[in-house]
Amino acid sequence: MSNIEMTTYATKELVVNWHITEACNYKCDYCFAKWNSNTKEILHSISKIEAVLTQIECIRHLFNTKSNKILFENLRLNLVGGETFLYEKQLRNIISLSKKYGFKLSAITNGSLFNSDNIEFIAQNFSSIGISVDSLNKDTNLMIGRSSKKKVFDYQETLLAINQMREINPNLDFKINTVVNKLNFSENLSDFIQQVKPRKWKVFKLLPIYSDKLEIQDHEFYSFIKTHAHLSEIMSIENNDDMTESYLMIDPLGRFFQNGIERGYNYSSPLCEVSADFALKQINFDTNKFISRYKRII
């Protein structure tokens, strides 16, 4: 028998979050998707999209050399905004090019742009859809900024769209994202969550990147968690420390970014100009914290 000790891996899916645009039809007070750049976003350039996707594929191999416990067999590209479905033509280009690399695709959306023309397209091209739902109350959504041209977020329309997409693609996963803040920490979303039946409900404590107007204290955040304790099996709870330096995030210019010491972000060079390895070294990124977010099944 060989004395060589074999390394055991848990195979996982690596998730890279690409914020493809800052543009959005909502104006949420605590939105962190603000990069304040006058440069044209790269989703409008096929060649730059291809260059960024090439480096995104390299990220998986980089992390496989940094962990002796987890092997990332595939990569899921999570498309985020702004509002992800705002630029349909450009989004279709990204999807088409991503499939050449074999990436799985997911998206985060505020759900306001679901319609009869795009529901089938979404259901057929994504493996997972995350929908941001912070409140079911019209007045609360108005105060948060979750409205567009006087049309406020309507959770019933969202439920209808989810059911329609499930009919088209029964394997499509749904996730709900909720940012707990001063206006909604006492709200109970249980009935809505139970109707959606999401695979995961991600609950975030408001991270004050640009505005702390609706910031809450820890006891208020955990009061919200306690209200929904009966849904703990699907809840993924993240406070500010959990979120810091532990996500792979790319901005609309193709740059890695992380929270800065003060307000705003620190950035790498664009991935359409430098390698992913070089760019990651330009930002504060906690590899150990990132890997620890993946449950190890050994």
TrEMBL record:
One of its GO terms (biological process) is defense response to virus. The keyword Cell cycle does not apply. One of its GO terms (molecular function) is metal ion binding. Residues 10-238 form the Radical SAM core domain. It holds the Pfam family Radical_SAM. Keywords: 4Fe-4S, Antiviral defense, Iron, Iron-sulfur, Metal-binding, S-adenosyl-L-methionine. PANTHER family: RADICAL S-ADENOSYL METHIONINE DOMAIN-CONTAINING PROTEIN 2, S-ADENOSYLMETHIONINE-DEPENDENT NUCLEOTIDE DEHYDRATASE RSAD2. This is S-adenosylmethionine-dependent nucleotide dehydratase. It comes from Acinetobacter gandensis. The lineage of its organism: Bacteria, Pseudomonadati, Pseudomonadota, Gammaproteobacteria, Moraxellales.
